[in-house]
Amino acid sequence: MKIRAAVLHEIGLPQPYRESRPLVIEEVDLASPQAGEVLVRIHAAGICHSDLSVINGDRPRPTPMAIGHEAAGVVEALGEGIEDLKVGDHVVLVFMPSCGHCEPCSSGRPALCEPGALANGAGTLLSGGRRLSRNGVPLHHHLGCAAFADYAVVSRRSCVPIDHRLPFDVAALFGCAVLTGMGAVINTARVEAGSRVAIVGLGGVGFSSLLAAVASGARDVVAVDMLDTKLDLARSLGATLVVNAKDADIIQKVKHATDGGVDYAFEMAGAIAALELAYRITRRGGTTVTAGLPNPQSVWPLQAVSLIAEERTIKGSYIGSCVPMRDIPRYVSLFQQGRLPVDRLLSERIGLEEINAGMDRLAQGKSIRQVIVTGASA
User: Fold this and answer.
1) Residue 12 Ramachandran class (φ > 0 left, ψ -120 to 50 alpha, else beta)
2) pLDDT tier for residue 98 given thresholds of 50, 70 and 90
3) Shared domain check, 182 and 122
4) Looking at the structure, do residues 145 and 187 belong to the same domain, yes or no?
5) Is residue 312 part of a domain?
6) What integer is the mean pLDDT of 265-291?
């Protein structure tokens, strides 16, 4: 079938992207789903830093590639062997497919699925196949989803069914921003009620961590960002202290307000300076969690003795250490109960043709979560 998709042909084009246009909206061919695969009509797709990091070269991927990984839609067709989904089901796409059989999957850590990681790096579906092409030339799939499009063929392992009452533009956020941010707090760090928490970097993932910290009963929730508009929103969402990252006295201010530092600090900005700040505002015996995905060439110079003398813990968190089939329905339920207002993270709803300008807004930090609505949703 013929579909529209946002295709990246060249990595590293200069900003502004509305002029260099790294993403081209093209008519491409989408093959039918094979065994274990699903055809999904995409209704909404969020613009995430993981998309931007491919475009700017921080996370190189093979090209040409159809971009997009945080999305929600409706099942249109099923490949052979799928019995636990049906046509018409609403689903959220998950950007790390899990095979269910490798050692990480078998030990309850599907975020670390080894075949899934290999497939994502190669730009294929979990099966190793590619279902997209243009003029007979195969296109790569971004993180097994290729979701900035009208339709996508994905592995069954990339789909989580959801309540059909959930709006698509909100549902899309659960596939990455909410899953990553909430999971870092709940699964990776296991924040206890009464803890002191700091979030460094307030994008969609950082704000989801903030909401999770509030929902977990943290007594202090410190929000750190460089934009006062985001800090204002953080305060309205439950932050007890907001501090601009450009404040020269930020470390002293946070430590004073939290009686020596926070128990858990979450770095969600994808920058070494943010990770250093998160570490320095963590108290003795505390835990620093990083999920920001900086450039692979970035190196953090750690004062190693502090790990020992202060009994510090540093943890990485990928997809929030989540089990998507378990966690997404839980987080959706919290939203539906009014306890997780992720809809307030929606900055703009835009069309597919506006995607390059949307990437500019993301790169400039002006938006929290922009969502592309397609087809009947537009």
Assistant:
1) left
2) very high
3) no
4) no
5) yes
6) 97
Average pLDDT over residues 283-293: 96
Classify residue 325: in a domain, yes or no: no
pLDDT recorded at residue 303? 87
Task: Please give the radius of gyration of the chain, using alpha carbons only, rounded to the nearest integer.
Answer: 20
Residues 81 and 190 both lie in one domain: no
Total of domains in the chain: 2
For 334-353, the pLDDT digits (tens) are 999 999 999 999 999 999 99
- Give residue 353's domain range: 2-175+341-377
The residue behind tokens 């993981």 is: 50
Query: What CATH number is given to the structural domain containing 265?
Result: 3.40.50.720
Do 158 and 251 lie in one domain? The reply is: no
- For the chain, give the mean pLDDT: 96
Quick one: 165 and 200 in the same domain? no
